Amino acid sequence: MRHRIPQGRHVLSAALMLAAPAQLAAQTTSNYGTPGLIETPTAEMYPDGTLAFTSGVLDRTLRATMTFQMLPWVHGSFRYAVIEDFDRGGALNRYDRSFDLHFLLREESRRSPALALGLRDFGGTGIYASEYLVATKTFRERLKLSGGIGWGRMAGRGSFSNPLGVLSDRFKTREASGAGGIATTGQLDFGNWFRGDAALFGGASWRYSDRLTLLAEYSPDLYAREKASIGFEVNSPLNFGAQYRFKNGAQLTASYMYGTTLGLNYSYFIDPRQSVAPGGQGAAPPPLLPVDQVALASWNLPEEPTASARRQQVLARTLEQEGLRLVYLEEAGDSLRIGVENSRYGQSAQAIGRTARVLANTQPAQVQGFDIALMAGGVPLSSVRIARNDLYELEHDPDGSWRSFARAEVSDSISLIKGGFTEAAYPHFSYRFGPYLQASFFDPDAPLRYEIGAQLGLDYTAAPGLTLSAGLRQPAAGNLDDSQRQSNSVIQRVRSDWGLYAQQSDLRIEHLTAEYIWRPGENLYARATLGYLESMYGGLSGEILWFPANSRLALGAELNYVRQRDFDVLFGFQDYSTATGHVSAYYDLPGEYHAQVDAGRYLAGDYGATLTLDREFANGFKVGAFFTLTTVSFDDFGEGSFDKGIRLEIPVSWLTGRPSRDRLAQVIRPVLRDGGARLNVRNRLYGVTREARAQQLVKGWGRFMR
Fold first, then answer.
1. How many CB atoms lie within 10 A of CB 530?
2. Helix (H, G, I), strand (E, B), or coil: what is residue 446?
3. Within a domain: residue 280?
4. Which of 397, 424, 451 is the C-terminal boundary of a domain?
5. Helix, strand or coil for residue 196?
6. What is the mean pLDDT of the chain?
7. pLDDT-derived band of residue 304, with 50, 70 and 90 as boundaries?
8. 284 compared with 104, residue with greater pLDDT
9. Do 562 and 577 touch, CB atoms closer than 8 A?
10. Alpha-carbon distance 579 to 602, whole Å?
11. 556: closest CA among 664, 649, 681?
């Protein structure tokens, strides 16, 4: 029942190309990948939860942007731009990473416009650094007018003294973005926001038809840095464009900009709530048989050991057909206590529902209640009590799933485990073999690095909680090992030598561990792992977690002693060893949000904290962001200034419509450095246990009867 995310850096591009675009309203998307006209922003928002992917070209510049509508009133963007011959007098291309934030201050009403405030490139090199305040008003559903005031890069043509100067003289001046050099990139340049001269911008969009929208704008951007480096010409502040909207909601925009340049950009939209394939393509659940027809021949036999064994064999075989493994079985009066491991269903509630149906169709009539424990490696995670009569009563009820949850009882399952493990449960061996694709996006020297090959995973659970595990990889092709970037870190190189691991390894032992997970007490979980913990480190890892079954809050602590592995990723070690550990707090916020804070000592010996915020939809689709601040200064950290990034998780079932526990996962970092680096140990307890807690079960309970 382990939560599996194959290939921790699994590429998502192919999956996203197959995804179903969101059906958007009439807002247009600029070539910066955010709601806007051509180059200037508008005060519009995408539908809540939308993911927008935009790629555009103009002159010798390519921009690729991912925008996520995090809340109805705020969206954030990550942008990767390639500017040819930008650096060192035309000798090098510039690979630029930047972040945007856009806040809706007021919604549009019948009489007043929408009003928004934005930060563009507030955490990158500052090439596009600007701030703005913009208003947008719609007239007769087809004409939209936008206008605003901009600072920074948007204060070029027609600039004037900053009106905020009446509040303080400090608003009158602005330092050049990125003036501190490459080491300062990635810092939040608070001291420059809304400072310096300002300029006005504006434009209009006219929806000629349901498919075609015409655009015109006045942009004060003078492209000063591009003019100095690549000779970009700006002869006019006027830009004109036409945007075509396809039936699936995607947009293609062609534009003529600044009197000299043609531009083209394409935007693709995803609604995480809408799966690519409709659900229910997996096997249908077994229909409930009337109680008087339930006939598992063994209960008509005399009550003797052979009859009990026969019932258990039939139950195990029937559960196996549903993708569930029977590991625990115990009779308790008119109730049956059962433990199952789920290898098929992404929603644990669906595994519970299938188990309950199998029990109703196979167990004697005197059994009136089922205590179903979800388990991982023989360790109970939680227990759900289902009354047999409720299954029959609510089977055809339109709200049967939710009414069944109201009647169910979710509790800690430790009391269930008293030695009732089935004889066939342990030892247990499983393996996984197949291809892998490992990708690195948007590093400072290349947009994409990848590696493909074959991988083998082996798991031997010798006894409940005790698992011996190995993971092997054999690369076959790719350019992940082509990186010539040498680490210039002034602190211990705990991650920045990643290129050497790719270059000097062939067949790799990704992990080779002995792991023991157990329950020290009610609401408590513990883990000890020994061996080669990940591709770069081996040693000993210990963890404890407090996580009540019905709580939004979980608290954990982890302590590790590790040594850095040789670059060939086989059996040897290097000289560097360290102790690292964190205390962690996890909290399910109201709605679809989840927060995590980890504080402690990182691999390079620095102390600090990591804040992570995710938005997780009911189907398991997850979009999140994180940042880490430690005792390593911005200068010592180097390029990027501090560790930060975006992460995506897409359930395979979201793409296929079939039940699956696999996920495609990708972490996008602007740059991987050594400050704030944490050990990547497998099976951290919160990830193992969370799916079986009440807050997570309720999100997927709509699949209880499917």
1. 15
2. strand
3. no
4. 424
5. coil
6. 89
7. low
8. 104
9. yes
10. 8
11. 681
- pLDDT tens column, 185-206: 556 677 789 999 999 999 999 9
Is 50 exceeded by the pLDDT of residue 181? no
pLDDT, one tens digit per residue, over 673-705 is 999 999 999 999 999 999 999 889 998 898 888
Number of CB atoms found within 10 A of residue 252's CB: 13
Asked if the structure places residue 704 within a domain, the reply is no
Boundaries of domain holding 621? 428-463+465-697
Domain boundary among 213, 239, 270: 270
The DSSP bridge partners found for residue 469 are 459, 513
Indicate whether 296 pLDDT > 50: no
Q: Residue 516 to residues 355, 431, 462, 481, 692: CA-CA distances in angstroms? A: 27, 19, 10, 35, 19
Report yes or no on 15 lying in a domain.
no
Considering the domain architecture, whether residues 309 and 204 belong to the same structural domain is answered as: no
- The verdict on 399 and 451 lying in the same domain is no
Q: How far is CA 189 from CA 178, 184, 362, 416, in A?
A: 9, 9, 66, 55
Q: How many domains does the chain have?
A: 3
- Identify the CA nearest to 27 among candidates 147, 144, 201: 144
Strand (E) or helix (H) holding 457: strand 446-463
Q: Residue 443: which of 505, 495, 490 has the closest Cα?
A: 495
Whether residues 406 and 374 fall in one domain: yes
Q: Are residues 400 and 441 in the same domain?
A: no
> From CA 476, how far away is CA 413, in angstroms rounded?
45
Residue-level pLDDT at 187: 64
- Dig out the tokens for 620 from the structure: 């398991």
Q: Which of 490, 494, 496, 492 is nearest to 636 (CA)?
A: 490
- pTM of the full predicted structure? 0.90
pLDDT for position 255: 97
Q: Give helix 305-321 / helix 348-362 axis angle, nearest 10°.
A: 140
Do residues 442 and 536 share a domain?
yes
Calculate mean pLDDT across residues 409-417: 85
Domain co-membership, 585 together with 636:
yes
- Taking the C-alpha atoms of residue 622 and residue 90, their distance in angstroms, rounded to an integer, is 40
Please check the confidence at residue 447 and state whether its pLDDT lies above 80: no
Residue 427: is the preceding peptide bond cis (ω within 30°)? yes
CATH code of residue 627: 2.40.160
Mean pLDDT confidence for 54-83: 94
Query: With the CA atoms of 637, 640, 644 and 650 taken in that order, what torsion angle do they form, in degrees rounded to the nearest 10?
Result: -130
- Same domain for 501 and 640, yes or no, is yes
Say if residues 613 and 604 touch (Cβ distance below 8 Å). no
In whole angstroms, give the CA distance from residue 628 to residue 669.
Answer: 12
Q: Measured between alpha carbons, how far apart are the two ends of the chain, in Å?
A: 19
**pLDDT in the model for residue 262:** 96
- Asked if the model's pLDDT at residue 183 lies above 60, the reply is no
> What residues are paired with 53 via a beta bridge?
66, 268
Provide the CATH number for the domain around residue 315.
3.30.300
The DSSP symbol for 593 reads E
Is residue 5 in some structural domain? no
Residues 315 and 229 in one domain: no
